């Protein structure tokens, strides 16, 4: 079964073709990052307009890269939430138009569930080996959710952020350190130049003891205070890049430690057989390294960085498992900007 996936929930216009929920036939992403970097963050109206301009060429490129024609496509999958309403509408309307014109089944997919299914795209079948239940950490620009996946389509929310999402905190910390947008890759890059044992700065960790919830807004304030104390706010003046990088590295360590410890705690508490990571923040090299190092014997699935960030292949992969167990959506499929999972 060949599924065309479409993803426009935030600032990437993406289309992909995936065979049987596993085999990546094409994966096209038109990033708007440079457009938004100019404003220091995603501007919703700019994003929707850009999706409108990119949507058709991106779908055409996805077909072309796969060497497929419309006759080969069996179903259409599209993100219908969570995300920016105007952005989601562009993808959903495109998907409906194709489904209508080609008389193909249409599946609306939860973006967060899509991030979980990126783990199926590189030769693994976490559902078969090690099998359910699996603990999933979805950490992105808008979410930091710990979920127990008990079966395909069955999720229990174990914990979530009470304030900022992990990605949002990377973006905010990078902005106040003058490191640019998006913040995650900028902070990772700055931290790489600093050997860990030389970092003397310590920033707080919000453990939210007794829960599997997260909180990152206090950490952002702590970075702000340190930056103000040291005269580093808004970016490094010449010769002070080292101090900015040290603060960035201390920030990264704090977020990574909390995400690692709480994910492993969730797995231990639930008796999960394995761990799946997904979402832009899980592209972070330090997080990947620490989770693999500390997981003991537990299998950990972390997609390649390019599949952790927003893409349409994960949406198509996820839709394959929907197609196996439910009816397609109708043309009344609407966008749900605050859609939840679990
Ligand atoms: O999943 P994603 O691409 O979009 C959303 O669904 O939000 O996640 C984007 C977020 C941004 O906040 C970005 O700063 C963060 O993921 N991110 C990273 C890294 N790459 C992207 N955070 C930490 N380290 C990275 N290498
Ligand atoms: Zn995402």
Describe the structure.
The protein folds into two domains: 2-117 and 310-323, Nucleotidyltransferase, domain 5 (2-Layer Sandwich), CATH 3.30.420.40; 125-302, ATPase, nucleotide binding domain (Nucleotidyltransferase, domain 5). Strands 3-2-1-4-5 form a five-stranded mixed β-sheet, sandwiched between helices. Strands 8-7-6-9-10 form a five-stranded mixed β-sheet, sandwiched between helices. It starts with a strand and ends in a 19-residue tail after the last helix. The chain contains twelve helices and ten strands. By secondary structure, it is an alpha/beta fold.
Short synopsis of the structure:
By secondary structure, the protein is of the alpha/beta class. The chain is built from twelve helices and ten strands.
Write the layout of secondary structure elements.
Layout: E1 2-7, E2 12-19, E3 23-31, H1 33-37, H2 44-66, E4 75-81, H3 85-102, E5 106-110, H4 111-117, H5 127-131, E6 134-139, E7 144-151, E8 154-160, H6 166-176, H7 183-192, H8 217-229, H9 241-270, E9 274-278, H10 285-294, E10 300-301, H11 305-308, H12 313-323
Parallel strand pairs: 1-4, 4-5, 6-9, 9-10
Antiparallel strand pairs: 1-2, 2-3, 6-7, 7-8
Helix pairs in contact: 2-3, 4-12, 6-7, 6-8, 6-9, 7-9, 8-9, 9-10
The protein binds 5'-O-[(R)-(carboxyoxy)(hydroxy)phosphoryl]adenosine and zinc ion.
Residues 10, 140-142, 167-168, 170-171, 182-185, 188, 279-281, 283-284, 309-310 line the site of 5'-O-[(R)-(carboxyoxy)(hydroxy)phosphoryl]adenosine.
């Amino acid at each position: 079964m060949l599924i065309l996936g479409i993803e426009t929930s935030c600032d990437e216009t993406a289309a992909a073709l995936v065979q049987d929920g596993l085999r990546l036939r094409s994966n096209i992403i038109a990033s708007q990052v440079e457009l938004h970097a100019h404003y220091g963050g995603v501007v919703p109206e700019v994003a929707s307009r850009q999706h409108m301009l990119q949507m058709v060429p991106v779908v055409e490129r996805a077909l072309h890269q796969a060497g497929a024609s419309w006759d080969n496509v069996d179903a259409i999958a599209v993100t219908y939430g969570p995300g920016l309403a105007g952005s989601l509408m562009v993808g959903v309307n495109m998907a409906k138009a194709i489904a209508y014109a080609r008389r193909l089944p249409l599946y609306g997919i939860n973006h967060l569930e899509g991030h979980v299914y990126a783990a199926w795209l590189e030769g693994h079948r976490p559902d078969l080996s090690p099998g359910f239940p699996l603990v999933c950490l979805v950490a992105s620009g808008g979410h930091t959710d710990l979920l127990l996946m008990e079966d395909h389509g069955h999720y229990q929310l174990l914990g979530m952020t009470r304030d900022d999402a992990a990605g949002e905190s990377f973006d905010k910390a990078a902005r106040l350190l003058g490191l640019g947008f998006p913040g995650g890759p900028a902070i990772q890059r700055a931290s790489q130049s600093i050997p860990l044992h030389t970092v003397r700065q310590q920033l707080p960790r919000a453990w939210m003891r007794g829960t599997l919830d997260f909180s990152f807004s206090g950490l952002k304030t702590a970075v702000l205070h340190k930056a103000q104390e040291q005269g580093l706010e808004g970016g490094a003046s010449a010769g002070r890049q080292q101090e900015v990088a040290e603060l960035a590295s201390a920030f990264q360590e704090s977020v990574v430690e909390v995400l690692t410890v709480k994910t492993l705690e969730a797995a231990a508490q639930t008796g999960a057989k394995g761990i799946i990571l997904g979402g832009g923040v899980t592209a972070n090299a330090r997080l990947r390294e620490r989770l693999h190092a500390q997981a003991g014997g537990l299998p950990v699935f972390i997609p390649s960085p390019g599949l952790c960030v927003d893409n349409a292949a994960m949406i198509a992969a996820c839709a394959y498992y929907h197609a196996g167990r439910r009816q397609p959506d109708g043309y009344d499929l609407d966008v749900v900007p605050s859609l939840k999972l679990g």
